[in-house]
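During the reporting period the student researcher (J.K.) took over the structure-prediction task from the postdoctoral fellow and processed the backlog of single-chain submissions. One of the processed entries is reproduced below for the supervisory committee.
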Amino acid sequence: MGTSMRCTVSIICRLIFGGALIVSLIAAAGGQDREATRREWGNLANGRTEYEVSDPALLPSTLSLAAEEAGCRYKDDMKDAPARFMRPEGRRIAIVFCSAITGSHQIFDVSNVMKPTLIELPIIAHPDGFRSTPRPGWITWDREAKVFLAESGSDISLAKLRHVYRMESGSGSFVIVRVQFNPRIDGKDEWMTIWEAPRWSFPTTPN
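J.K. obtained the following structure tokens:
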């Protein structure tokens, strides 16, 4: 084998070895990051399936990133509106309040702690129909009825809307079951149902 050929082979071998080394280092770093992220979430949960976090510094880094990418200003009011973590119907979610002129909670699916994903919920659209939104309003959990309540309003009207959702067993999807309206401007809770999901029925197939 000539000198030039040996040099070429040597260079190729070095490039292959160097590339393999870089790939292995990246894989090792990725594994360490995943382990660190799981440990961060595990330490925060400490064996609990439902808990709150009121210190922005304690919010897991992957959730912080997801919230920031969603345009959620979560740091401003977290002390008064803690982030809530829960597992209804087996689906791991985080409910985070986002400050704005008209603030709203946002819900993140944290089943994969490496990549929390924003969940959009159905709400009524004007003048008719439904649409989806990542900002359904102020969200509370009615433990007894096992439904989520999302209240929304605006600065130009004190009347409020409330969307009621249940978590579907098995899929963990949010299902809208009721829409309520409160016309009172004095703050009293007098909700009237303006839409309720009917039980589906299908026409029978003719013989």
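The committee noted the following: The radius of gyration is 25 Å.
J.K. will present the remaining backlog at the next meeting.
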